[in-house]
């Protein structure tokens, strides 16, 4: 059967990664992968995906951020239960960290295949920028802050930052892990403890964020990769961005450790969150299609496909039983942290899209409006956490 | 003086087009270093080729050409049906008033102000119940519905300006509702049809949201590829390809505008002037 | 046998009553003209007969058939409009055959009828042209032809000539009259031009505010108007009205007394406020004046030479008074004219009821 | 004589209900659209705005919660303010520019067709394209600012899209560029419909041309302005693509608009009910402004 | 002293010559009517005088001032248009004062002039209304008022009455005439209605194809037309033309010979193809007929009663012939009428040159 798969991976590396899925599917099964790519972020793709499912003409499989996004679809019985595949392939044993599988599980049943791990908690630093400014490349957040005036004097932007909401909200998340500490972070994000959010640990985060805001004031790019480009070219000192950024450094021919430095957890708390992408399978009437869906699910989790896919995508595989020899420096750092178990669940899994949306709104405003004080922002932040569901 | 103002205004309107054309013929390195207004040092048509036949959408790398056929396939029936419905509406509203007809019309005009995002889900559900969801005809229907307010307004105004006596003469001659519509009104309505066609071609050709929400990938219009080319969040932005792609996508409505400019003004004159 | 009869016709536009309990019988072959000022409901009445307006009450019969709710095309009527209402995209032939094709008349029959109509209206060589390429008069002829080919019993005309210039209007008027003589159909003709009405009509219905004021032959209407409105409306230049009192068989106004013995009173009321209506041509100037029972002298205030005759504006006892003299008579402002008035041809109206005395 | 009694067809004296049935059938699509889609969907939306629907519409009523939250959201307030700024400016400027261009073109100039096409062509392009090009031209790194600086004005600053105070005007520039051509054509059509004699009369009266336009011609073009207004206003309320393509609402939330709020809440934040509440507010506003006007404009008017 | 004079006026629209070397002198206070068929250039000429069209050659003087290149508002003219051209959104008062305010005339002066105009035109109680709430005649009056308040030397009228119905037209015609008598301004009046021309004009200029065919008083034009075109154009009902030959002092056609001794020939050509023009009123029916030099008998083909008189269509020697009789005379189709023709009042034209003989 022709199995249509929708996703929003349309850039070069992403498309190449998807192609690995398609190739494996076409070669290893009797079915055919029909690509339904929609560019833009989830905001563009999601209504399309939901409409298709609601309209009774669903696709065979679709990308969705796992976590809470799909809960309602599952409750409505619109998504296929693939527990049998997971049991047969023993996912429980191989998926690492296991939280990835948990977020695909509702009432003990598994509804999605996690395909990769992305982590947000990185800062990328430009060696050239610091050289030009005559200061050493920082090794943690404090040093980074301390070096900022020197950079500015040299006509550089200490912190590169794009305009998109998710970048700003993400950067704040990274800072809160590094500055407020893991316990406080957990209290806020897992327990939704508004008191902690309003408390002194988070006050530090907001103060730091005000500082960061000043450092990023002259960064006028829109897209995240344009911001990354500023780090690559030495116009900016650093950028807080997820692990996907290193793809850009690679394309530019830069070498980790020589041309740039990556610090997980801003060099303070070396932990990474384990977000990532997952595929869901809308329920279909045709048993043939169901069979194909399950075959695809199984295939996506298989070792060979995981390796092929993640190498192209630049993300970490979801299986603990894979060695990635070809991985670069930063990726290896990530793998090590992963192996050590210093992991946190990602915001996607903990907060509803609505809450995240509100946080993004807050962060967008906070980062772009210098008159927005730390106190006000923290108050609002605590309120959102308090009302989170 | 008069011409001076006109020429300055013309420059303002032409500037973006110039930028698009110029950029689409530059190589990427040139774009990075130069400014947007500089003419290309080395003219290249590679971006056009790429936009048309090589740019990737997911794993399909056949550029805009992939959606072109679909766009045409969507465009023709949508334009046809939406104009047919709207013209019949306008005709009925101006010549065959019945109790409440003006109320429906008023609702229709207010409908033009509803942001259509709001209606996505209910329409999905309606189409599902009609069994039209995901098909070409479902999309055609959606385009007809959303084109209806403005088009009906134009047609109504136009047909109101046709002398009532003509309509009476046709009734005395024994022509019925449809007879009068097809044999008398349609042949006289060329200018307003041109206007309607232009508005609809533009709207439908440039539509992205409906095309992608109410159909399946095999029917995705060209704008989906355009969106994919232009909106790829990650990776380097190939501005030259983007511009080439946008120009390619806009070509059909542009040509229609240029060809039918005079008729357009005439039609507007007939359809818009009477409030 | 009457060709068209209308019983208690009511027509309202929303709350406005435009036609009120109107009755009308038109014998077969009659040329009836509906005449009245703008807005009096002439077109509305015609549209009701044609079935183009849904009536609010009453009934309409055409050839003794109740057609009240029939479609216009089923009533056996043909209609000619003021703006011609030709289908601009069809040739003359197409215009003529449109109704027939709708009625599924066989091809050769259509051809025959078009030929006949083209013959009658002398427009054989126009058949292939589009209306845009025709002159006003030719268009009007095509419009008439369109009714002609349908072989209808009743022709309805709604001011068919008012868009034409004076000369053409006069010519086409004669043509329509000829056509009526030739075909003998019933014709109902709406106009607000009294010359048209007078020259064309077998009978004229004068309308006012949705009511028929008088129905009669042109002669009756001209010479025996049913009320002051009709008297005023008919006649060009129009009737002079002098307000005064009837006292002892004399009409008195200002300090003038006109003996009215010769006036054929229809009521016995011999006194009261009345209004004397005198048509300009019943005032004789010069030689003939002396023979008349009442004579006076009037001063020329203004004159309008019109070629064949001249209109003269004067004041009679302070009231404006218009007379008509031969075009050869040379007058100048300020001239004094000796005039005689044919009192026996005058009309006298009660000022309050506006009815003739 | 009394034919109505013995006529064999006296039953046809009743009004057949089938009269004009075709017209009513033909109007069915319109009726269905008006009632089923526009009214139906609006009611559906309003009803769901009182629920806490998230990803999927559900009938789970929570009263006015969504509205309370809506009106305590800064982004929504900013959106409304932006829409007001954009709406008013765009309305005025579109009409002004459209009318000015039309008057220029109406003065029997040469190459009228060429100019007309130049002013009109942007309308053929989608908002996405418009947004993209203007984002680019206004970009300080390689757009106008760079050019002017390259010409020697080192301190020249022109980066409307990056200044929260100005960003909405940056969008305005693009919006007007795209839409004013159509308005111009409509105005031109209106001007062509003005009686030549009026022009002559004003010349005999010695009225200067500019004054004639303002005092005499514009008031005569009421119908044209109404049509233009409907077109512009319906576009303004729905403005979305342009903002997304040009600024994505940024910098910060400086260029957020209500339609984008609705869309983001419904689909990105998966809070349908919040989006519905926002769109209900938009609907209500539109209705408050439009219904009385539409009533006067269309209901009471007779044919001709 | 002449009020308006036009010297060698040329006007081309692109390559089309609409006015060709036109000369015209209009003395002060004259009421000149430009009369001609549609498209002959009347409005064009008027617009040139007003300065609304840039002329291609020649000069225009108003009150002996060369105004050829002045703005319309500086020429001392006021203009009234066929479509009234009132400013619809202004009240009557606004319409009247608009030009004055613009010329910075003091407030009280404006008020005075408006009052005067309102007085003259009897529209005091209309001042606050908008044109939309006025009847056709009232609108026309406002349009005239607009020219009136500007205190101009020359009034220009471009078919000011053609949008009105017949009755109103007749009334307003008289009003304009009165206005002229009262004000004594020069007035130039364009029309294609000959009745208007005849009744209003001091002199009429008959135009055709951009040329003036004849310029003269209504009487001259009616009784001594400069050519066949003018003869045909003037007169309602229009002149009968009978084609024939002039042989031995007799006009011959079919087998009829009419002695033409009494006709005042202006040329010596006593033979050739000619055309005899006879106005309907110069054909006498009944008593008077016997006294006339030429008599014959004609058969009634069709008659048009018009109240005060009746038009009768006959054939004379196979050619269509129209006569006018008193409205009291009863006729029927087929009646034979004894008629006499006033040959001395006829016109005779050379068929080729169309000039009178
Ligand atoms: N569609 C309509 N709705 C409301 N009133 C109407 C309508 N049509 C006509 N009327 C009114 O009905 C009255 C009669 O109109 P009608 O057209 O019959 O007049 P008429 O005698 O034909 O006048 P005219 O000589 O101007 O054609 C008028 O007062 C007019 O205002
Ligand atoms: N703007 C123009 N461009 C070209 N030709 C024109 C223009 N205006 C008038 N004409 C031509 O000039 C000729 C005279 O026109 P004009 O309007 O003066 O006629 P008119 O005598 O006023 O006719 P009417 O009685 O119809 O008003 C006509 O043949 C007309 O076609
Ligand atoms: Mg009428
Ligand atoms: Mg004219």
TrEMBL record, chain B:
This is Carbohydrate ABC transporter permease. It is a multi-pass membrane protein. Gene3D superfamilies: MetI-like (1.10.3720.10). One of its GO terms (cellular component) is plasma membrane. It comes from the Bacteria. Keywords: Membrane, Transmembrane, Transmembrane helix, Transport. Belongs to the binding-protein-dependent transport system permease family. The chain crosses the membrane at residues 6-25, 74-92, 104-124, 136-155, 175-199, 243-265. Residues 68-260 form the ABC transmembrane type-1 domain. One of its GO terms (biological process) is transmembrane transport. It comes from Alginatibacterium sediminis. It is found in: Cell membrane.
UniProtKB/TrEMBL annotation, chains C, E:
Transmembrane segments: none annotated. SMART domains: AAA (SM00382). InterPro entries: AAA+_ATPase, ABC_transporter-like_ATP-bd, ABC_transporter-like_CS, ABC_transpr_MalK-like, ABC_transpr_MalK/UgpC-like, Mo/tungstate-bd_C_term_dom, NA-bd_OB-fold, OB_MalK-like. Residues 4-234 form the ABC transporter domain. Pfam families: ABC_tran (PF00005), OB_MalK (PF17912). One of its GO terms (cellular component) is maltose transport complex. Coiled coil: none annotated. GO terms for molecular function: ABC-type maltose transporter activity; ATP binding; ATP hydrolysis activity. The keyword Cell inner membrane applies. Keywords: ATP-binding, Cell inner membrane, Cell membrane, Membrane, Nucleotide-binding, Sugar transport, Transport. SUPFAM superfamilies: MOP-like (SSF50331), P-loop containing nucleoside triphosphate hydrolases (SSF52540). NCBIfam families: PRK11650.1 (NF008653). PANTHER family: MALTODEXTRIN IMPORT ATP-BINDING PROTEIN MSMX (PTHR43875), MALTOSE_MALTODEXTRIN IMPORT ATP-BINDING PROTEIN MALK (PTHR43875:SF3). This is ABC transporter ATP-binding protein. It comes from Alginatibacterium sediminis.
From TrEMBL, chain D:
Its main location: membrane. GO terms for biological process: transmembrane transport. It holds the Pfam family BPD_transp_1. InterPro entries: ABC_transporter_permease, MetI-like, MetI-like_sf. GO terms for cellular component: plasma membrane. Residues 80-295 form the ABC transmembrane type-1 domain. It is a multi-pass membrane protein. The chain crosses the membrane at residues 21-47, 83-106, 118-137, 166-191, 212-237, 276-296. PROSITE patterns: ABC_TM1. It is found in: Cell membrane. Keywords: Cell membrane, Membrane, Transmembrane, Transmembrane helix, Transport. Belongs to the binding-protein-dependent transport system permease family. PANTHER family: ABC TRANSPORTER PERMEASE PROTEIN (PTHR30193:SF42). This is Sugar ABC transporter permease. The lineage of its organism: Bacteria, Pseudomonadati, Pseudomonadota, Gammaproteobacteria, Alteromonadales.
